[in-house]
Amino acid sequence: MTSQPPSLERPVTVADFQTAKSQGRKLVVVTAYDFPMARLCDQAGVDAILVGDSLGMVVQGYPDCLSVTLDQMLYHAGMVSRAVRRALVIADLPFMSYQASVRQALSSAGRMLKEARVHAVKLEGGQRSRKTIRRLVEIGIPVMGHVGLTPQSYHALGGYRVQRDENRLIEDALAVEEAGAFAVVLECVPAESARRLTARLRIPTIGIGAGAGCDGQVLVSHDLLGLHDGFKPRFVKAFADLRGEILRALSTYCREVREGTFPAPEHEFK
Ligand code: KIV
Questions:
Q1: Comparing C-alpha atoms, which of 125, 128, 116, 115 is closest to residue 80?
Q2: What architecture is domain 14-239?
Q3: Start-end of CATH 3.20.20.60 domains in the chain
Q4: Active-site residue 138, yes or no?
């Protein structure tokens, strides 16, 4: 059974994010990296699908997202876009595809919209990304910001840590809002800080490890479906145990092939 999506039958737009905030309706965002998972997320009624650079960890097997390239993101984002009928599709600009200059950011984001046909891009950083966000928005590319724990600065931050400097969080999020972003991800910040910030911002906050006071939530699909067997952060809830299900199915397949019970007569051509 699928959950009932919010009233919208038409495709979700960035303007709907603003409407959801003003109506107090929670926004649901989930990551996906390929056609079948994106199709399922869309059919379940999520508001947006994020092609995250968490791709590096959950699909490519790296310990962080730093090695993900723009071409890889374009490849995965294209698969997601082709699967989706209703949700807003947002793609991460990966590490070093936008930090070098505004010109580089325009080129990378432009390719995302033209080649992968996503609707919006996400990039990390508050005050330091203000100019880039402003320019992208000026030319008509919707941008989602990302502040708090910014995984592309993993080494500078000294690891995946809760970000407790509320003043910095506020300045970063206000910079993102002022630059014209349509929403901002708050990652790994204390719930009370996220709640106060959410009340202060006009744009919706999408939390991950930021408590229930945000305007919406985002989770990595592999985490929420119980597909990932690595470290499970405190903020992750596994809503299913697909890893267990898949292991059971694969073990049964191995056993039946070895015993000679699969294929059975009904699987044979006469
Ligand atoms: O890459 C990603 O999946 C993300 C989310 C965790 C917000 O940026």
A1: 116
A2: Alpha-Beta Barrel (3.20)
A3: 14-239
A4: no
- CA gap 71, 111 in Å, rounded: 9
CB 136 within 8 A of CB 105: yes
Query: Of 166, 177, 178, 187, which is the active-site residue?
Result: 187
Tens of pLDDT, residues 127-155: 999 999 999 999 999 999 999 999 999 99
In angstroms, the CA 254 to CA 98 distance is 46
Beta-bridge mates of residue 184: 145, 205
- C-alpha–C-alpha distance, residues 207 and 194, integer Å: 8
Question: For the whole prediction, is pTM greater than 0.85?
Answer: yes
Cα of 108 vs centre of ligand 1, distance in Å, is 18
Place of tokens 């056609």: 35
**How far is Cα 247 from Cα 243, in angstroms, rounded to an integer?**
6
Q: For residues 222 and 37, what is the distance between their CA atoms, to the nearest angstrom? A: 10
